[in-house]
């Protein structure tokens, strides 16, 4: 299989996409488009064999392009994706998929009608740590899951178009959707803003069936950079610390058993404290793994797990957090 790639947007993420697509033996970056002259000059210097243009249509309508990779501001995702799909291209979209769930669903429907694949670039799903966590959960090593608790905090960077939940929690929503393979029943969110109209500290709570709960803390006003998540099960508990260089995942043989005396609420807690295990995790570049996965899906016809529907599901939850914020944290049902 030989795939020609067209990249729209050569700002921060576009060069990373170009490098990783070119590293894949099945791919070749053939065209690059960007509105900025300086970025076009950089693209031409780094990829002299590419056709570099200021017009995205030179990619979305080009006969020699198989995959259109979109790395532009969110407001442009929908129009670019629809144009690419209308012209028979598979599409790679930097997260989030679009500006609204309505636009996201239209991308889903267009891709299905054209029998094309759309992948949403939730790169965190392809880190070695998240892949290992998925294996651990699917193998049942944690047992019945109780909760997911995440903190994603740092000082800045303040955004001018989205709040802290949309900026930071998007990663975690994609991760939990991948790990669990199901969607929440209700979404609640609270937060506060201190410098502009967008909240800079936010807390999101998702309720699932069988009493599973997920909680996310997103913060632009933290003196420390924190990237830590906990997943608790009735057999073992897992801690994922992205800031750890070596032992990113630790599995704790800890838990609690309720010894009942027969009558309701009369038992006592028997706490279990055992060993701690850190599984071996290979240090591979997530974006490289994601490109390989996309190519394999195109070759085999398998629908990727980070497809347009997954992007739509994340968008639905983000929109529900906005509704809940306006309701002072009251839960919003997902439909």
TrEMBL record:
Gene3D superfamilies: Dihydrodipicolinate Reductase, domain 2 (3.30.360.10), NAD(P)-binding Rossmann-like Domain (3.40.50.720). Pfam families: GFO_IDH_MocA, GFO_IDH_MocA_C3. It is an enzyme of class 1 (oxidoreductase). Residues 131-235 form the GFO/IDH/MocA-like oxidoreductase domain. GO terms for molecular function: homoserine dehydrogenase activity; nucleotide binding. Keywords: Oxidoreductase. InterPro entries: Gfo/Idh/MocA-like_OxRdtase_N (IPR000683), Gfo/Idh/MocA_Oxidoreductases (IPR051450), GFO_IDH_MocA-like_dom (IPR055170), NAD(P)-bd_dom_sf (IPR036291). Coiled coil: none annotated. Transmembrane segments: none annotated. Its EC number is 1.1.1.3. Residues 3-122 form the Gfo/Idh/MocA-like oxidoreductase N-terminal domain. PANTHER family: BILIVERDIN REDUCTASE A, GFO_IDH_MOCA-LIKE OXIDOREDUCTASE N-TERMINAL DOMAIN-CONTAINING PROTEIN. This is Homoserine dehydrogenase.
